[in-house]
Fold these 4 entries.
Entry 1:
Amino acid sequence: MKTMNPGPIGRPSARMPRLWAGAAYAAACLALAAPPAHAADAADDDATAIVRKADEVRFPAEGFEAGVAIESVAEGSAPQVRKYRVLSKGNENTIVMVTEPAAERGQIMLMKGHDLWVFLPNVSQPVRLSLSQRLTGEVANGDLARANFAGDYDAHVLRVEDGDGGPLYVLELLARERGVTYHKVLYWVRKANAWPVKAEFYSVSDRLLKTARYEDFQRVAGKLRPMRIVMRDALHEDEVSTLRYSDMRLRELPDRVFTKDYLKRLE
């Protein structure tokens, strides 16, 4: 029985059926064009590192305390201002206390991981909340209580584009699991220093919900950080909430602080 001579590499044998020869040639071209799997993995690792650095610019990785004033405006309505005191540690543990208006003082939100509760002064049992639920204006509970993009999303670099101050990474963040604040985020991060510049937040149906801009960078808690975040409704651009951070400082916060039993001491 005679064996088929495959011919030189890269050129199909004359005896090879034309269909097989075409398929083999196409497969060879795809193999040459497609990046190796480890290259794609490395790109995703780089994207995750970019998001993690941007997280550390926004807020300290260690324990910290800060005041937050949120001013919400909409056409035809008077501006509303609400104030909070935030204690946070490691992006997984956060306490948010209402300080103004006075009628709501004493309300406390506790976040542990993706679990969020609100404790009300005259209610014995805490009430479970979702991170995506609206807190005030254009601000969701998760916008204030949880800011762990690196932990909540798989990141991919879509492109690099020019921006004021230099090139910007444009990253796509896709939620790793249900229950996070947003299903998808498009995130612009300055290439030179990992400063967050802006973000777009999307629903499960891929509808743009709102945008955010990170502004007024000041040196606090050992790093230049955005002390103002402007969030704008995607459909009603006149509906805007501005978060202003103040008095941010590092603080030693034992784990016992972030427990239901400890909250009564923080009122």
Note: DSSP finds four helices and 15 strands in the chain.
Entry 2:
Amino acid sequence: MGSTPLLVVDDLHASAEGTEILKGVNLTVGEGEIHALMGPNGSGKSTLANVLFGHPGYAVTAGSILYRGGDIVEMSPDKRGRAGMFLGFQYPEEIPGVSVVNFLRTALANRTGTDYTVLELRLKVMEAMRELDIDPSFADRYLNEGFSGGERKRNEVLQMAVLEPELAVLDETDSGLDIDALRIVAEGVQRLATDQRSFLIITHYQRMLHYITPDVVHVFLDGKIIETGGADLAERIEESGYDTYRVGSTER
């Protein structure tokens, strides 16, 4: 582990259209760590993911986001991507007419500054597909067009394998997946986990964590992290729900 954490979120406040959604988020992710951020719908989890990646619909009103020691609050989304940050969307968009391999060629050129030939990129993609047990014909399909939920998420795992980010944030990547698709995504994440690559898995349910054991679990409620613990914290949430963490509860 490096001496400087990969990501440090310090007292982060953010709003959308004048309404405060993030209300003082504090989060530290070290190199090679897998973190799970768990909270009910409407708690602000996806807002945190969007703010981490510079979504223009949200305004940071206080606090800082340090990535590799530098504050990135003013950094554009494309520069965050080039710096090694990757966001897995809850609902990946279709891009008709753009094949998976051509999309990855453009994305990788932006990520690395190297313009790969079609052949070089195809070889790199095929190698990643073999490692992830993905059908080679996948490469020539239009991005997410006609893809099942599981195929869309598997495609995002392929993107991570090719782009090799240092920080991958998966925003409710388990949303709408059946058990087989969930396992495929989880196994892909496990294969890609290294001592240098960190994951922040944002989820409502504990079921993704049946397949991935996080190093750290956070409970996110009403715009901030209210408790942090080990993998057993996710199991307690599954047993008792989020109501025990709400203000005024006496059940904790």
Note: The longest strand covers residues 19-29.
Entry 3:
Amino acid sequence: MANPAKNGMEFSTIPDFWRQVRHAPTRFLGLDYDGTLAPFAIEPMQAAPLPGIVDLLRNLAADPQTKVAIISGRPVDEVLTLLANPPVTVIGNHGFELWPYDGTRVVRQPTPEQLQGLFEIRGHLQQRGYGPMLEVKMASLALHTRGLEPVTAVAVEQEVLTEWGAWALRYGLECRWFNGGVEIRCSDWNKGHALSDLLALQPDNVFAVYIGDDETDEDAFAVLKNRGIGLKVGQSGKPTAAQDFLPDCAAVADFLRQWLAVTGPAEK
């Protein structure tokens, strides 16, 4: 796990991490948003990035040897608003939206079957009284339980996972837990696919790192096996494909500061 050291942050399972960062000819840094760059909030648009994050992203993007991308389950427009239009590539809706910096926005479309499944499940959840907890996205339904009593939140999440998991599969959907709820989403595209596409555009010798906090980020961590390093924010006790951990969002901000210090002119 990452620990603050005299000369900065260290990773016990990756003792040469910062040496690899420093000497890499090219670098790729992928970042989730919620729970990574911003603490959680009950109201999604109240989940503001930690102070200094916006400037850190702009400074990271100014390095021609480092490519930065935000890969989020949120719609792209929300990420752009919350991060004040960062000069980086933004992936939204678990990969269904791609907005390259200075590029053309690309939007994948769910199949008609997937759209029908999302419509039907949405109707059933609304009949159950879960309408106020639902966030309707272009390729998923997010049922938010943040703000409920913990026992109630677990019960609601388990109900949705149990009752709608099999139903979702019939339509090419899947039910996945996230930090603060359950999401019913298209199963044929995720953060891992989006990350693979971004890495395919990078040189073969790129040093790739991805930081995220929950189950939706496991797809990205899995892609980096033998190709880079995944760092998970927090420790849930559940199995993870990440190689090491960062304690919280504040540690992520410290990580970004150290990345800049290591890759800056004075360190080379």
Note: Helices lie at 17-23, 53-61, 76-82, 112-127, 150-170, 191-200, 218-223, 249-263.
Entry 4:
Amino acid sequence: MKRFSFALYGLLSYTLFLVSFLYLVGFVGNLIVPKSIDAPLGVRGPAALLIDAAVLVAFFVQHSVMARPAFKQWWMRFVPHAIERSTYVLFSSLFLCLVFVAWQPLPTLLWDLRGTVAAPILLTLYAVGWLIILASSFMISHFELFGLTQAWRRARETPESKSAFVEAFFYRFVRHPILLGFFVASWAAPTMSHGRLLFAALITLYIFVGIQLEEHDLVKAFGITYRNYRARVPALFPFGKRVQGASKS
């Protein structure tokens, strides 16, 4: 029964992630969803700016702190190893939902390219950014990344396999294609409002901070293998270094 409950917990956490991820696509792009980054209007002025910055920073802190090995070692005193990743995914999804609920649109436009040749190009890039994120996750074991594999492995009482440094397509061009996808999706905007600019700017700042935190952990995990990989392959943009190798965390 306990093993079954772990599997169910992992599935529910993954389902919440999937729903929140799909909502995020609509939220940032002002597509379909009832509340997006630019509508409907709520609190205005400096208060809106502070609220938006606060909920994004809260998500970033949760997302980074809970991913650190030191936190995981402490956290697993209370959370079974089989559902540790699912719990991380659950908390990340809940904090993302907090962003959706608390966000206050800042709709004043910096640019509006609707009706120009640039608009369909930017919309295509927006879609490409999200597809890069999704495809990259499958290249490093999507279901393990989001906790389903660990919970299912516990349910079947299958031994855990050790993470290995492996090659995968996008990771031969950049070390962090998932973060590249977020960067592209954040900035590819036919209409750029003050709210969208705040979102994109804070996401970009988080990306560069997150790279430093993640790579510190990857060097500790894979040592010289990852150092050599980092020396060959650029972090975010696919130019500037010779392309070889890839990583999995």
Note: Residues 243-249 have pLDDT under 50 and may be disordered.
